[in-house]
C-alpha cells in the first residue's frame, strides 16, 4: 500500500487537492500496478512562515 505525503503551502482549494489526488492515484496505479484503493495520499498544509529554503523563510520572500 503506497502512502504519499504531500506538503503544500496553505491556500489550495479542496477541488485542487481532489484533482491532484486523482492524478497521483492514477499515476501510482499505472507505475506500481496496485489498485486505486491501496493508494493513500496525505495532504499537509504548511504556512509560509513554517517553511524555509536556503536559510530564508518563504514568508520573508517578496
From TrEMBL:
Belongs to the 4-oxalocrotonate tautomerase family. GO terms for molecular function: isomerase activity. Residues 2-60 form the 4-oxalocrotonate tautomerase-like domain. This is 4-oxalocrotonate tautomerase. InterPro entries: 4-OT-like_dom, Tautomerase/MIF_sf. It holds the Pfam family Tautomerase. Keywords: Isomerase.
